[in-house]
């Protein structure tokens, strides 16, 4: 009897782990290869110096907010769309910081500054500081003093007058041509840039005013569609802004007056008043040197 019971138990079918009402065996669904190996994939290293801005995308039906932000989750194909990766060199950051210090009067005309001392101030090695200062020497903002460092150049009234003359020779004809061809609506779009210069001037922020002033002029000249013109004009504009000859407190009124000329220039361009455009541009160059 025991042997018969054993044979009977041996012939019984085990209960299927995923059986249905009929007792049929349903095989376990195969998981995608990506789902089986997701836990084995190392996470990409986190890099502080590389910023990947979020992509602006609409959310598709059935896709969560992480897809709208362009994020990728394991088990899905990576988004093939382009990403913008911004990398700023240390030298470039130091160069902009030095330019701001020059315009703001922190680096005084006639004074000599050593690269190691400036490097300690910025918390970097001396090499990117020297490279940035060499660039400023090419631009005429400083001059090399052997075995000492760099001396901030002192602009003479003659040099500033020459810069104003060259800027006028280049930009006045361009402005007059644009006044005849650019529609009024396009000029109106530049008002926020003019207002930004007025805000910086009212606050007495010389460095920020210099930045917004160049941004306004670049936006105007960009309508000519000439990249070489933009590069030359911007270089001349920057040279005319450094270094300060008088104390920043004495220049507050000049900044406010300069900023007001931006709005007046837009009004003249919209009205296609060529005489006023020419007068404003020439006076603006002369006044911005004071």
Tags for this model:
mainly alpha; 13 helices; 3 strands; disordered N terminus
What does this protein look like?
By secondary structure, the protein is mainly alpha-helical. It contains 13 helices and three strands. The protein has helices at residues 2-10, 33-37, 65-68, 90-104, 115-122, 126-139, 157-181, 184-188, 191-203, 206-222, 227-241, 252-271, 274-287; strands at residues 112-113, 142-145, 149-152. A three-stranded antiparallel β-sheet has the order 1-3-2. Helix 4 crosses helix 6 (126-139), helix 7 (157-181) packs antiparallel against helix 13 and helix 10 runs antiparallel to helix 11 (227-241). The longest helix has 25 residues, at 157-181. The protein is elongated and about 55 Å long. It starts with a helix and ends with a helix. The model is unreliable at 1-87 (pLDDT under 50).
Give the helix/strand layout.
Layout: H1 2-10, H2 33-37, H3 65-68, H4 90-104, E1 112-113, H5 115-122, H6 126-139, E2 142-145, E3 149-152, H7 157-181, H8 184-188, H9 191-203, H10 206-222, H11 227-241, H12 252-271, H13 274-287
Antiparallel strand pairs: 1-3, 2-3
Helix pairs in contact: 4-6, 4-10, 5-6, 7-11, 7-12, 7-13, 9-10, 9-12, 10-11, 10-12, 12-13
